């Protein structure tokens, strides 16, 4: 039986709060899956297994608010028919079992990259809730998961048939909501607009696809059942429709005017900023990304929309969360830290604020702020250790010494990296 009482010594603590500063001379004490105390160095460590951090920086585990566990971010030269692939996967027990194992292995990569909580916003069948439960039971090594399972889309809508179900009318949308409830989801995801790649012409990414009355019907019923609703929206019109009809979080976002700012405040909604998926289409050379002129043009609109939406929200006191939409091309499960670098670079926030957003702020926005997100007694033992100070340079989060999730420690996590993707993305860190 391993020691369940652990003392982490000689670390420099960053607690995850908005004004966090490095704190020296403390020992972090944990028992099983909880932080029990932050004690002064020199306290008796009798009965504890001592882990010497050798001057590393200990901060809360990262929280990624926008994850698709079914993808690995590997770019493909030609567009994939995801709906056909999912149909094939689900057609028999063997392929289902293999696909589920794959989803769990991608969730593990998230953990090895320093993410100790994820919020999934569109997955295959009930794999996300299953992986969540297997992770909580210690059967698989994965982060804490807040799961939406399959999103609700419309025929020809975003992700319809792959990680979302196409509802032809309100009755079908509500039937899918009931199904999600039976699977024990934590939140509901709507695909209200299209995305970059499903736009049919230049200048129209994020076309409104879901009728306002369907948004309203699902939100009303979800709220009655106690679920928050997140919505994929990538156009100003889409954001308004989402907020007017009861959505709790806007995923991605778009440029906003005074009316939209008012709606956000009225709804007490937040925006989940995702710079990572838009960046390759907007900024890469099309010869590399394989993006058509239309895709690049629309990618730029979405990129600018996501950045501007975050900037406007921050300036107007609208809460901003961070996710990296992993599963999109060039967005891997182990690289969430890049999203913090982009948030700092393109939205002009400090490193401190970026780290706070990706830890305590995200935890609060996801409704788990009392469980995780900061280094304090009573919270879950979810933290990471870096060699260098991430407040000086966020790329310190790339190389981790240690990841601890619910008390389970992984020393020297080394996810297998995609060198091609790294080489293409690294220039955008500076």
Topology of this structure?
Layout: E1 5-13, E2 23-31, E3 34-40, E4 49-52, E5 57-60, E6 62-67, H1 82-89, H2 93-112, E7 115-120, H3 127-136, E8 144-146, E9 151-153, E10 164-166, H4 170-182, E11 188-191, H5 212-225, E12 229-233, H6 236-244, E13 249-252, H7 258-267, E14 270-273, H8 278-283, H9 286-289, H10 293-315, E15 320-322, H11 337-347, H12 351-365, E16 383-386, E17 400-405, E18 408-411, H13 419-425
CATH homologous superfamily descriptor of the largest domain: Metal-dependent hydrolases
Q: How many distinct helices?
A: 13
Q: Looking at the structure, what is the overall shape? A: globular
- Mean pLDDT value: 96
Would you count the extended β strands for me?
Answer: 18
User: Could you list the spans in which at least 5 consecutive residues all have pLDDT below 50?
Assistant: none
Intertermini distance: 46 Å
Q: Strand percentage, roughly?
A: 15-25%
Query: What's the story with the biggest beta sheet?
Result: 8 strands, mixed
Helical coverage, percent range: 25-40%
* Name of the top-level CATH class of the largest domain: Alpha Beta
CATH architecture of the largest domain: Alpha-Beta Barrel
Q: Which topology of the largest domain does CATH recognise?
A: TIM Barrel
Q: How many domain modules?
A: 2
What structural class results from the helix and strand content? alpha/beta
How much is the radius of gyration in Å?
Answer: 21 Å
């Amino acid at each position: 039986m391993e020691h369940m009482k652990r003392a982490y010594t000689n670390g420099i603590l960053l607690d995850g709060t908005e004004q966090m500063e490095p704190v020296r001379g403390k020992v972090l004490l944990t028992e099983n899956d909880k932080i029990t105390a932050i004690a002064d160095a020199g306290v008796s460590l009798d009965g504890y297994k001592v882990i010497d951090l050798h001057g590393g920086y200990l901060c809360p585990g990262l929280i990624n608010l926008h994850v698709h566990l079914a993808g690995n971010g590997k770019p493909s030269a030609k567009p994939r028919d995801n709906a056909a692939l999912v149909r094939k996967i689900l057609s028999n027990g063997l392929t289902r079992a293999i696909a589920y194992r794959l989803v769990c292995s991608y969730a593990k990569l998230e953990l090895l990259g320093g993410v100790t909580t994820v919020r999934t916003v569109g997955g295959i069948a009930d794999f996300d809730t299953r992986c969540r439960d297997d992770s909580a039971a210690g059967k698989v090594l994965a982060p804490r998961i807040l799961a939406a399972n399959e999103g609700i889309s419309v025929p020809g809508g975003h992700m319809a048939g792959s990680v979302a179900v196409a509802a032809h009318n309100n009755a079908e949308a509500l039937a899918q909501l009931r199904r999600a409830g039976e699977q024990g989801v934590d939140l509901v995801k709507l695909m209200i607009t299209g995305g970059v790649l499903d736009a049919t012409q230049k200048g129209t990414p994020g076309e409104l696809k879901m009728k306002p009355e369907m948004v309203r019907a699902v939100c009303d019923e979800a709220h009655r059942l106690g679920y928050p609703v997140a919505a994929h929206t990538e156009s100003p019109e889409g954001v308004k429709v989402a907020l007017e009809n009861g959505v709790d979080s806007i995923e991605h976002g778009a440029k906003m005017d005074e009316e939209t700012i008012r709606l956000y405040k009225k709804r007490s909604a937040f925006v989940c900023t995702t710079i990572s998926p838009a960046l390759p289409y907007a900024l890469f050379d099309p010869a590399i990304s394989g993006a058509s002129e239309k895709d690049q043009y629309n990618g730029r609109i979405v990129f600018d929309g996501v950045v501007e939406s975050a900037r406007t929200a921050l300036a107007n006191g609208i809460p901003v969360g961070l996710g990296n939409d992993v599963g999109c091309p060039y967005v891997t499960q182990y690289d969430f830290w890049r999203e913090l670098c982009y948030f700092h670079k393109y939205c002009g926030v400090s490193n401190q604020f970026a780290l706070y957003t990706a830890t305590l702020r995200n935890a609060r926005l996801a409704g788990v702020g009392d469980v995780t997100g900061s280094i304090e007694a009573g919270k879950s033992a979810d933290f990471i250790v870096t060699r260098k100070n991430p407040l000086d340079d966020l790329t310190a989060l790339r190389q981790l010494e240690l990841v601890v999730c619910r008390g389970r420690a992984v020393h020297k996590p080394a996810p297998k990296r995609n060198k091609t993707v790294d080489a293409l993305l690294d220039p955008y860190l500076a």
